[in-house]
Design brief:
Blueprint (H helix, E strand, L loop, with lengths): L13 E4 L5 H12 L3 E6 L3 H13 L4 E5 L5 H14 L3 E6 L17 H29 L12 E5 L12 H21 L4 E7 L10 H8 L10 H12 L7 E5 L18
Parallel strand pairs: 1-2, 1-4, 2-3, 4-5, 5-6, 6-7
Length: about 270
């Protein structure tokens, strides 16, 4: 028997999820693991939470490794991606979930400052685009070596926000950073094709934020045409779907119970607390 004629065992697909130690990033990482993906768990400061996420993924029978990086540092972003590739050679998806969400508003006691704007732009915009560029360069270099039987096209999923459809002045720095990231989805989808797909995923109100009360969150969560907004499970399952759907690129999926269809002059949390 000619052993060289035997096909090589297929590697498990891997995903890098930023901000995967807690909250929505954690739920996304776990759902990918449930669907058979290995997971690179990025975290900034929440080391113990990242360890717990890794342990839970490993209990599902999937490989998981935690990686610490400050997304405000381009040097650490580059080091993060290199370290992930060293552990996960078959990296097929990047989910940019980590973000800053701090309150400011031009006409308020907490107006926009250059520091706040720069902080949001670095973590919410520059970091996802820098990681996307690294992902593109990696996938482009692999194209000629790819298994011709594997027809999947790798992807980057940018976590956005339903409020980008119906803008309001609350959380100005955050909104500006996410609006720019939304624009980048279409721009980079053209630039990175056919090696990499670029997709936006926009949740509605999904988890409590800031000083929002549980009662206020419950009320706000019902303020949609469907009578409920998105759950962490909804967003996580949508992310896996987008990562597995080769024809989707250059567009944004709104998973929010129709919340983006209802115009609002204030962020929804201020209407309920």
């Amino acid at each position: 028997m000619n052993l060289s004629s035997n096909p090589l065992p297929q590697q498990n697909k891997a995903v890098l999820v930023t901000g995967a130690a807690k909250r929505l990033g954690r739920e996304i990482a776990l759902e990918f693991a449930r669907q058979g993906w290995d997971v690179a768990v990025h975290y900034g400061r929440s080391e113990s939470d990242a360890g717990a996420t890794v342990a839970e993924i490993q209990q599902l029978g999937r490989k998981a490794v935690a990686f610490k990086a400050d997304l405000a540092s381009e040097l650490e972003i580059n080091s993060l991606f290199a370290a992930v590739l060293a552990e996960f050679s078959n990296l097929q998806c990047l989910v940019n979930s980590a973000s800053i969400f701090e309150y400011d508003r031009a006409n308020s006691d907490t107006p926009l400052s250059s520091t706040s704007l720069q902080d949001h732009m670095q973590v919410n915009l520059a970091a996802p685009i820098l990681l996307s560029q690294l992902m593109f360069e990696h996938q482009k270099s692999r194209t000629s070596k790819a298994d011709k039987s594997d027809l999947s096209i790798p992807s980057v999923i940018q976590l956005l926000d339903q409020k980008l459809i119906n803008l309001n002045p609350d959380y100005l720095s955050y909104t500006l950073s996410k609006a720019a990231l939304l624009t980048s989805v279409e721009v980079l989808a053209v630039d990175f094709a056919p090696h990499l797909r670029m997709i936006g995923l926009a949740p509605g109100i999904t988890l409590t934020s800031g000083d929002q009360t549980e009662a206020g969150f419950t009320q706000a969560h019902q303020m949609t045409p469907l009578g409920k907004s998105s759950t962490p499970s909804d967003i996580a399952k949508a992310a896996v779907f987008l990562a597995s759907s080769n024809a989707i690129t250059g567009t944004t999926l709104y998973v929010d119970g129709g919340q983006h269809l209802l115009p609002s002059t204030r962020d929804v949390m201020f209407k309920t607390n």
